[in-house]
Amino acid sequence: MHLKEAMVTTPIDDELRAIDAYWRAANYLTVGQIYLLANPLLREPLRREHIKPASSDTGAPRPV
Q1: pLDDT (0 to 100) of residue 27
Q2: What predicted TM-score, i.e. pTM, was given to this entire model?
Q3: What does the chain look like in DSSP terms, one character per residue?
Q4: Could you list the pLDDT tens digit for every one of the 64 residues in the chain?
Q5: What CA–CA distance (Å, rounded) separates 22 from 9?
Q6: What are phi and psi of 36, to 5 degrees?
């Protein structure tokens, strides 16, 4: 196998990379909406006041 042949990507590879990038971005935004009051894109260093207070009505474990 030549080096050029090893570096060729197929449309399926490109689609999988795009789906993976979309999935990671969607999860990142979801976590930001759930846990952050401000600075969801982390354009400044994360501070305690950016984080929402824990809700005690769900019974779900609190993230560390």
Answers
A1: 94
A2: 0.55
A3: --HHHHH---HHHHHHHHHHHHHHHHHHHHHHHHHBSS-TT-SS---GGGBPPPPSSS-PPPP-
A4: 555 555 666 778 899 999 999 999 999 999 988 899 998 888 999 999 999 987 665 666 666 6
A5: 19
A6: -110, 140
- The dihedral through the CA atoms of 61, 27, 19, 9 has a sign that is negative
In single-letter form, the type of residue at position 9 comes to T
CA pair distance 26, 34, nearest whole angstrom: 12
Residue count of the chain, please give it: 64
